[in-house]
Amino acid sequence: MPVKLEDRPIAQVREETIDKLIVNYSHDVISQEAFERRLDAVMATESHQEMVDLVADLPLAADSEYQQRKEATLGKREHREPESKVTCILSNTSRKGFWEVPERLKVVDVLGSITLDFTEAQLPQRHVEIALSSFLGSVSIVIPEHFSVTSRVGDVLGSSEAYVPPSDVETSHIITVTGWSVLGSVDVSVKRNLRERWVAFANAMRETFGMGQRNNGDSRTK
Fold it and tell me: Per the database record, which ranges form the Cell wall-active antibiotics response LiaF-like C-terminal domain (predicted)?
């Protein structure tokens, strides 16, 4: 018996939905306007059913050739574990790209610099905890604009930032930073490139099938 839709990891459903959008856009089934509108809706919603409904009328599905091109262009994702640890001592460390984010990430930073970039990361869960232990360390958290960051860090002669999206942007994921920081800093910056990366990949797929880019008004399916 197949797993119920609502019981599946939402990040997996979102990625499959985006794959289907790209395949149909690249074969000229939908216009650029329709593709980008639906892509925005997929990235904004946290409802499994809404995602599936957004592509229910599209006839084409992702195949093995598409998956190979996707991996070659966007890269493979790392394996996700329930909890992992990042240790940085007198060095620089970063996590970025298509990495799987655990529910709890332990961060130990001693006289080092750590960058955690969530803009292209896969988060199967809505809430993520970063458990921080920092002494004279610098932690930089990079997020897309629909994420929020809450700080519960105990600062001793240090600083930590939080971020809440604008009122017109729905929060999709919440990152909570806990722990302590002595003479250190936790900085948050917003990066708005994930959507553009999907659009660029979709346009590259269109070029592969000889479709090129069409004007927004050339819609067959909206």
Answer: 97-160
Question: Residue 184 — φ and ψ, nearest 5°?
Answer: -125, -175
Chain Cα centroid distance, residue 48: 16
* Alpha carbons 69 and 15: distance in angstroms, whole number: 15
pTM, two decimals, is 0.56
Helix axes 194-208, 32-44, angle to 10 degrees: 140
CA triplet 164, 126, 84: central angle to 5 degrees? 105
Residue 165 burial (CB count, 10 A):
16
Q: Determine contact, residues 140/189, Cβ cutoff 8 Å.
A: yes
**Whole-number Å distance between alpha carbons of 151 and 133:** 13
User: How big is the chain by its Cα radius of gyration, in Å?
Assistant: 19
Which residues lie across from 141 on neighbouring strands?
116, 188
The residue assigned the tokens 């890269």 is 75
Label the pairing between strands 92-95 and 113-117: parallel
CA distance 56 to 17: 10
